[in-house]
Specification:
Shape: elongated
CATH topology: Four Helix Bundle (Hemerythrin (Met), subunit A)
Bound molecules: fe (ii) ion
Distance between the termini: 24 Å
Structural class: mainly alpha
Number of strands: 0
Order of helices and strands: HHHHHHH
Length: about 180
């Protein structure tokens, strides 16, 4: 599966969960489950996406602003998610934050699937996109389970085509993947 398809699958899932969340009644306790599910999907998705996709883009001759904008939006979404978790615990008004998070994620996904994917399709070959898709799918559950550890970084580097992995190693060593 090419990276684009793998990322889109997650985007659709997180959008569905966010729609469900903002559609809940004010005191529906199912929101605890949903917020946890959104966290468990969004955070490993973003880390694996940065490691495999953004860093590969950065390593090539691309418009760097696109990727930095993407990183910034990941930070913003995760800050909103943390506020939501904190508010939810003390039972304060969670809905406005949930709506803001949904808006932020929808905007980000739109930016990613239009501008970033277009730039990526310009620079990556189909087999590179396929290799990134496989690396992404293997890395994501590892991040969810145990965080990003050295052997995972090595695993990802070795799964990527040499044109990408050599460049990634050269951007400040393996730390480019962390
Ligand atoms: Fe994404
Ligand atoms: Fe993203």
């Amino acid at each position: 599966m090419e990276i684009y398809e793998a990322l889109k699958k997650d985007h659709e899932q997180v959008k569905t969960l966010l729609d469900e969340l903002v559609g809940l009644g004010e005191s529906d306790e199912y929101r605890y489950v949903l917020i946890q599910e959104i966290h468990n999907l969004l955070v490993p998705h973003s880390r694996a996406e940065e490691s495999v996709f953004y860093n590969s883009l950065r390593a090539l001759d691309t418009d760097k602003r696109l990727v930095f904008h993407g990183y910034k939006e990941h930070l913003e979404a995760e800050a909103l998610l943390r506020s939501l978790q904190a508010m939810d615990r003390v039972n304060l008004g969670w809905r406005p934050v949930a709506e803001k998070l949904r808006e932020a994620v929808l905007d980000h996904v739109e930016h990613e699937e239009s501008e970033i994917f277009t730039e990526a399709r310009r620079v990556f070959t189909a087999s590179e996109a396929e290799a990134m898709g496989n690396a992404f799918k293997q890395l994501k559950p590892k991040i969810a389970e145990e965080g990003l550890v050295n052997n995972t970084v090595d695993m990802v580097l070795s799964m990527l085509p040499p044109r990408l992995s050599d460049k990634l190693r050269n951007i400040g060593g393996d730390s480019a993947l962390r």
